[in-house]
Amino acid sequence: MADTTVHSLPDNGALEPVSPLQHWSARFAELAPAVLLRPTSVAQTVIRPTEPAAAEQLDLPGACRMTRDGDTTVVWLGPDEYLAYAAGIAPHEFAAAMADRAQGGAYVADASGQRTRLVVGGPHAETILAHGCAIDLSPRSFGPDDVAQTLLAQAAVIVHRVPDGFALLVRNSYADYLAAWLVDAATEYAIVPAPSPLP
């Protein structure tokens, strides 16, 4: 699959990922504060351990779980496969840092061009996701360190909780479709009813 991530060159000269959903910013802003949709550019690496020690060196989570270490989040994708991501760092630097931490005990590859990260927040986040997701995302069933790979409106996503809602990671080729679906699903919650006329 082609890398559809556009990269920007900030003042410090380092390439940083830019979300392919930037052009949705104005539409997302119209839904706030009832519904918060926020794309976040993150550097991503796929990790496949080759040595048992790598699990501890990289703080790898158990099945269907995630770990956070500072700015780095690592999510379980399957047996012996993980996705790590962090904001505010160039993809090649993040991949190199994770490879250094692995100390030769894991295969580490830059995957920043594969997925877009989108945070869904606000008081209606769980309800909106329930419109298109078959799994129960309520706190009693889906805890703060749980991770699921599921379908949301027929688009494959990785979902986990963040302090202000849910983080979704979706393939870049489906990012526009999912953004349009989320905006449509969220619109009814963002509409403020007109005040009743005075008698």
Automatic annotation (TrEMBL):
It comes from the Bacteria. InterPro entries: SoxG (IPR007375), TrmE/GcvT-like (IPR027266). This is Sarcosine oxidase subunit gamma.
